[in-house]
Amino acid sequence: MKKFNLNQLLRTNIRNIEPYSTARDEYSGTALVNLDANENSFGSIGDTKHNRYPDPYQTELKILISEIKNIPVDRIFLGNGSDEAIDLIYRAFCIPGTDNVITCPPTYGMYKVSAQTQDIQCTEVSLTEDFDIDPKRILAAADTYTKCIWLCSPNNPSGNLLSYEKIEYILTNFSGIVIIDEAYIDFADSPSWTTRLDEFPNLIVLHTFSKAWGLANIRLGLMAASPEIISVINAIKLPYNINGIIQDFAYSHIKKHHTDKDIMVAKILKERAKLIREIKQIPYIEKIFPTEANFILVKMKQPRKVYNYLIEKGIIVRDRSNIQHCEKTLRITIGTSRENNLLISSLKKFK
Ligand SMILES: Cc1ncc(COP(=O)(O)O)c(C=O)c1O
Prior knowledge:
By secondary structure, the chain is of the alpha/beta class. The protein has helices at 6-9, 12-15, 23-26, 59-69, 82-93, 110-117, 135-141, 164-173, 227-236, 244-257, 261-280, 303-312, 337-349, and strands spanning 76-79, 100-103, 121-124, 146-152, 177-181, 203-208, 221-224, 285-288, 295-300, 318-319, 329-333.
């Protein structure tokens, strides 16, 4: 393992930051009256439930998620989607105009967008033709200003897992931060990298409740990392990044339904198998890439025509044919049985 020094990696202004604090950080226990935060003590108009600021650290929700995911509480950060976690990683580690990160296209677009908004350069080391990483090329592209390497497994838009051994090689041989975005891990036949956080102090794993959990609307993402990294992220996040309504909803919903998540995933995987089986037989379909996610990347003749034809039928898919290694492809999310049947019959009728 290459030497890892968290303090050295952090931006100087972040290393010395004094986080925003409230009286409630100084006082634990149940107060008789709360006159410390300039809230409306009379309650909120119409009801009395929403006049207080929410728990900035989402303690109860985190304890629940920690038990379900088997990740210690002090290794968890919860964000407004994993997109918030992506943004905070740049804020913590990358000096605008100076530092750079490595991304491996084709991959999830927010790594680059978030970097650009903060004036951080992205060095792109493309995936191989079969959408795997080339660790030697990635490490060769890193210089002294490279703070992070972004990996997405299963990868969006290709759907495949990146090689476990190759990821391990990067984690072992890179002294900066390695982020593994596992937004789609619940659909994959592979253990999460959260099981190896103890071994790699430079590892950050991202999960989301937007995919297998079916909660994209509430914007809840998770970063798992060492307690040291998590405390830096907690110090720089907006104080109340997950609002109280969402904390309460997520707590009761996840508590009630967490055992149903696997049933939902099994249904999606069954539909995925059906979709692949049916689409494969269509003559103008050239290839369906191996997938471990809730979508398929499909190579075909005339993808733009098919895309427009599907729009006419009211079916929206994602045209990926303009991005590297994805020529002539559409990315299709697995729908419900009814939606997939409609898609299949429409695709069969395309001429
Ligand atoms: C790989 C990947 N990571 C993260 C996200 C965003 O997740 P969230 O909804 O938690 O912001 C997506 C969304 O499509 C994704 O494909």
